[in-house]
Amino acid sequence: MMPARSNVAASGGVSSNKVKYSRLTGDEDGYIDLQFKKSPPKVPYKAIGLAAFLFLIGSLLIVIGALLLAGSIEVAHPDRTVPVLIIGILVFLPGFYHLRIAYYASKGYRGYSYDDIPDFDD
């Protein structure tokens, strides 16, 4: 034999006959204008700072690698000039890419948003 149910809800302990409900008016559809408003974009300053840092370091390494490769700077081991250039390119590309997105998003171009830049505050 099963025990009888009580009128007390299991989670809140509120009796179901004490809850008061009110009907919605017939002309409201349940939506308010505020929920469709876009909030102002959150600018990821740390990510833009990191992108600027990568851009500057990559540019510096590309210039140094190009000077090493051209022979303007004398080196004892010329086989180490190409890796400097390659590392410079690998560091430069993500910095340039994210700075470009940040610039276009700040100017308000269509299709560019700060949401496209990964944020490290999460």
From TrEMBL:
Q: Which GO BP terms apply?
A: synaptic vesicle transport
Could you list the residue ranges that cross the membrane? Answer: 47-70, 82-103
Q: Name one GO cellular component term.
A: early endosome
User: Which coarse location class describes where this protein primarily resides?
Assistant: cytoplasm
InterPro entries documented for this protein: TMEM230, TMEM_230/134
How does the record classify its membrane topology? Multi-pass membrane protein
Q: Which domain of life is it from?
A: Eukaryota
**Looking at the keywords, is Transferase present?**
no
* Entry keyword set: Cytoplasmic vesicle, Endosome, Golgi apparatus, Membrane, Synapse, Transmembrane, Transmembrane helix
Location of the protein in the cell:
Cytoplasmic vesicle, Autophagosome; Cytoplasmic vesicle, Secretory vesicle, Synaptic vesicle; Early endosome; Golgi apparatus, trans-Golgi network
Tell me its family: Belongs to the TMEM134/TMEM230 family.
Annotated function: Involved in trafficking and recycling of synaptic vesicles.
Protein name in the entry: Transmembrane protein 230
Q: Which organism is it from?
A: Esox lucius (Northern pike)
Designated gene of the protein: CT030
